[in-house]
Design goal:
The protein is an alpha+beta fold. The protein contains seven helices and ten strands. It has a ten-stranded mixed sheet with strand order 1-2-3-10-4-9-8-7-6-5, sandwiched between helices. Helix 2 links the parallel strand 2 and strand 3. The relative contact order is 0.20. Pathway: Bacterial outer membrane biogenesis; enterobacterial common antigen biosynthesis.
Length: 230
C-alpha cells in the first residue's frame, strides 16, 4: 500500500542535534516519495500498534523499528498532599541535569540515528526547561528528611483540562523506598490543585518498572504505539 503523509521538519530537534530531521504527518495525506525521504538525515514516524499495514508499508520504504511506547492515563480524584515535595528551582538545575542525563541515557534518540550521548543531553535539557517553565510547566522534587533529592517529576498542563507527565525519575540511592509512587501522587495532587481531571503519561514498552509503577498508581493503559525511523 502507498504511504500517504507529508514530512514536517522538527525545527527544535534539528537545532539541538544538528540534524535535518522530520516527522511523518498523516493528517496531511499525500504520496510519499523516496526523493522526499532522502532529503532528510532522519525521518521519524509514530503509528498505533494496530496499524500493521502502515507499519509494513513504511518498512518497505526502509523504516526501522526503534521502540514501542505505551500511553496511560490517571483520573484525578481525592488526592492527598505528599510529604517532602518541593518545587524545583534554578539552584537544582545542575543536579537535575546530571540525574536526567544518566536516567534517560537509553531512549529513541540512539545510534545509529543519533550520536552517543545525544539522549542524555536531550533529557538533561528537557528537565532544565521544565524548571524554567519552558515546554513542561513545572518540576517537582521528592526530598528525604535530610533535604537530599530522591527523585523528580516534570508536568505540563494541557488545554483540555488534562496534564501530562514529561519526565519522572528516582535517584539510584532512593530506589525501593516508594519514591516513584510518591511522585505520581504528587503529580496527581498538582493536577487537582489546578482543577485538572486527568493525568497522562507515556513510557517505553521496554520500561517494565515504569509500567508497573503507573498501573499500581491507578493508571489505565490507553494505547500503544511504535516509533520507526528511516
Amino acid at each position: 500500500m502507498p504511504v500517504l503523509a507529508s514530512i514536517k521538519p522538527l525545527e527544535w530537534e534539528n537545532s539541538f542535534f544538528a540534524l535535518n530531521s522530520g516527522l511523518l504527518d498523516f493528517s496531511v495525506p499525500q504520496p510519499l516519495s523516496s526523493e522526499q525521504l532522502t532529503a532528510f538525515d532522519v525521518v521519524q514516524a509514530k503509528l498505533h500498534s494496530q496499524q500493521t499495514a502502515e507499519i509494513d508499508a513504511l518498512s518497505a520504504l526502509g523504516f526501522q523499528l526503534v521502540e514501542g511506547e505505551a500511553d496511560l492515563s490517571l483520573t484525578i480524584s481525592g488526592t492527598q498532599r505528599q510529604s517532602g515535595i518541593r518545587i524545583a528551582r534554578t539552584e537544582h538545575i545542575a543536579q537535575l541535569r546530571a540525574v536526567a542525563s544518566e536516567a534517560f541515557a537509553q531512549s529513541r534518540f540512539r545510534a545509529p540515528w543519533y550520536q552517543p550521548g545525544d539522549s542524555g543531553r536531550f533529557y538533561a535539557q528537557w528537565i532544565e526547561n521544565a524548571v524554567r517553565g519552558s515546554f513542561d510547566h513545572q518540576c517537582l522534587l521528592a526530598m528525604d528528611e535530610a533535604g537530599a533529592m530522591e527523585g523528580f517529576v516534570s508536568l505540563r498542563e494541557l488545554s483540555d483540562g488534562e496534564a501530562r507527565i514529561g519526565l519522572l525519575a528516582t535517584l539510584p540511592q532512593a530506589r525501593g523506598k516508594g519514591v516513584g509512587k510518591r511522585l505520581v501522587q504528587a503529580a496527581a495532587d498538582w493536577c487537582q490543585a489546578r482543577r485538572l481531571t486527568r493525568l497522562r503519561v507515556a513510557t517505553q514498552l521496554s520500561n517494565l518498572a515504569a509500567l508497573r509503577l503507573y498501573l499500581a498508581s491507578g493508571a489505565s493503559l490507553d494505547s500503544t504505539a511504535y516509533w520507526l525511523y528511516r
